[in-house]
Amino acid sequence: MTQTANAAPGTGAAITARALTKSFHGTTVLHPTDLHVPAGEILVLLGPSGCGKTTLLRLIAGLERPDGPDMLRFDGEDVSGVPVERRNVGMVFQSYALFPNMTVGENVAYGLKVRGLPSAERRAEAGRLLALVGLEEHAGKRITAISGGQRQRCALARALAIKPRVLLLDEPLAALDAVLRERLRAEIGLLLREFGITAVYVTHDQAEAMAIGDRIAVMQAGRIAQIDRPEVIYHRPANDFVADFVGTMNRLAGPVRDGRLVLDGGDTRADLPTGGPDREAILCFRPEAVRLRDGPGEGAILARITATTFFGATQRLLAEVAGQVLRLDLPSGLTFRPGQLAAFSLEGPALLEFPRNG
Fold first, then answer.
1. Under a CB-based contact definition with an 8 Å cutoff, are residues 229 and 215 in contact?
2. pLDDT digits over 58-77, tens only?
3. Which element (helix H / strand E) includes 74?
4. Is 210 helix (H, G, I), strand (E, B) or coil?
5. What is the average per-residue pLDDT within 14-19?
6. Is 155 exposed, middle or buried, given 0-12, 13-18 or 19+ CB atoms closer than 10 A?
7. 291 has which bridge partners?
8. How many Å is the Cα radius of gyration of the chain?
9. How far apart are CA 358 and CA 351, in angstroms?
10. Cβ(12)–Cβ(162) under 8 Å?
11. What are the phi and psi torsion angles at 80 (to 5°)?
12. Which of 68, 73, 87, 225 is 20 to 30 A from residue 273's alpha carbon, by CA?
C-alpha cells in the first residue's frame, strides 16, 4: 500500500474498528471490541490499570498487531496491515520522547525534516506551532533547559507538525505535578479542538477525562463498559462499575422489598424508594445530591458523622449508616461534629439502582 498523504490542517480521520482483539501469552487483554470515532472527535479511553486502554491505543497506532480477524479503518481505508510508520499518526507519551541534543524548535521540526520539507518551510511551521502552544520564546533552548510542562507542550507541537490523520496520547500528563496537570489538561483540550484533529487519549484520571473528552469510553477488564458524553457517563452510568469508577459515588447495598431499600443499623438507618424490582441491589448517588433534613422518616438517611474535611465553600463529611460508609458534600456554613447523628435526603433524580451481583 502506498503511503497516505498528510491530512489537511484542521481535519482528522474517522476511526472505525471491528472486533479488535489482543492476547499476550495466552491471556486476553482486549476482548473483541467495536469502536467508531468520528472525524475531529476527542475520545478518552478511561479505566484502571490493566483494563486494556493502552492496548487498544497501540492497536490503533499499529504498534501492536491484533489477533485473528479484525478490521481497522481510517476514513474508510483499511489500515489493519499498515505499519505504524505509514499510518500517519501522531503520538504523545508521558515520557515526552524528545531529543535532548536538539533545541525546542528542532524537536518540533524533526518530523518535517524526515519528510523532506525545505528548511525554510520547516522553520515557519515549527514557529507557528510553537506560538500556538506558547513556546515561541523558547525555540532556541535545549530540551533540558525547559520545564516538564513546557516539554509536554513541545511534544504535542511535534506530534501535530506532521498533520497526522489521528493523534494518540498515552497518559501524557501523568508525570507532571497536580497543579501543572490541571492547567495543561485545559490547554490540551482547547488545542486539540482548535486543530479539529481526531484524537484518542488514554488516562486513568477521571477529572482529566471529563475536561478533555468529547466522549469517554470507560474500560473494564478488556471491554468497553460504556461510551458516551462526559455528562451522560457521570449522571447516567451504565452499570455499577462505571458508577463507582467515574467521580465519587456512594453505594448502599441491601435487599429491596416492596420497592424500598430499608437498612436498619439500630441508631442509624435508611429508607429509600427504588422504583425497581425486589432483589438484592446497590443504590448509588453522588455526594452533592445530599441535603440536610429535620429528622428521619420515609425517604431519609439517618447517619452518624465520623469525620469532616473543609473545602472552602463546601465540606466533605464521612458518615456511617448500618455499617456502610457514605461521603457527603454540604455547605461549609453547616456545623457537624464526629459522633453526631444527622438526617439527610436526596434531591432530584439522584438515585441509581443496580443489581448487587449483576
1. yes
2. 999 999 999 976 789 999 99
3. strand 71-74
4. helix
5. 95
6. buried
7. 345
8. 25
9. 17
10. no
11. -55, -40
12. 225
Distance CA 160, CA 199 (A): 11
**Cβ atoms within 10 A of the Cβ of 13, count?**
25
Residue partners of 23: CB distance under 8 A and separation at least 6: 29, 67
Task: Please give the full DSSP string across 15-35, using - where no structure is assigned.
Answer: EEEEEEEEEETTEEEEEEEEE
Do the Cβ atoms of 156 and 133 come closer than 8 Å? yes
d(CA 148, CA 144): 9
Give kind and range of the element (H or E) at residue 314: strand 314-321
Nearest to 273 by CA among 217, 215, 350, 211: 350
Higher pLDDT, residue 342 or 113 = 342
Q: Where would I find the beta strands (DSSP E) of 163-297?
A: 166-170, 198-203, 215-220, 223-228, 250-257, 260-264, 269-273, 280-285, 290-292
Closest CA to 132 of 210, 194, 184, 196: 194
Give the number of other Cβ atoms within 10 Å of residue 111's Cβ. Answer: 20
Name all domains of the chain by residue range, CATH numbers in brackets. 15-244 (3.40.50.300), 250-355 (2.40.50.140)
For residues 101 and 151, is the Cβ–Cβ distance under 8 A? no
Strand partners, 302: 269, 343
Per-residue cell: 181: 496537570
First to last CA, the chain: 46
Residue found under cell 439502582: 353
Distance CA 60, CA 217 (A): 15
**Which string of DSSP letters, residue by residue, matches 89-156?**
EEEEETT----TTSBHHHHHHHHHHHTT--HHHHHHHHHHHHHHTT-GGGTTSBGGGS-HHHHHHHHH
User: Which candidate, 6, 233, 15, places its Cα nearest to that of 121?
Assistant: 6
Grid cell, residue 4, equals 497516505
